[in-house]
Predict the 3D structure of the following.
Amino acid sequence: MGRLPVLTERRALQAAVAVLALVPIGAGAAGVLLGPGFVAAGLPVPADLDSHFRYLSGIFLALGLAFWSTVPAIERRTGTFRLLGFLVVVGGLARLGSLLTVGVPHWPHLGGLALELLAVPALAVWQARVARRRWP
């Protein structure tokens, strides 16, 4: 099976990143607006936990927006893409640590873990491949 034409592969990568960035953008925005109630509706939340949750949600939102910023010239944004990917993988490793020490979270968090430790590294490899290809 041959390679996709370079422009087709670039557009496929751009589409994948644009769509997958909706996850941190949506979850981050919901966390900023709703606080911990976004994931634990009805439970009492101390002010310090609410503050920390909303702060991290803001970072999550910004991370998704930063991924979106790579889309227009994705073949030239390798450094930025790798840095963003590194941040996501570190967060995924922290989530994995929680799973191993505290227990298995609900399915949305397991989906996040799969994105963080499988999809994002795969996207980083794909982005590097697109960046190395010759451009017409």
User: Anything to note?
Assistant: The CA atoms of residues 93 and 117 lie 7 Å apart. The helical segments are 6-20, 22-34, 47-70, 78-101, 107-132. The chain has a mean pLDDT of 94. The chain is about 75% helix and 0% strand.
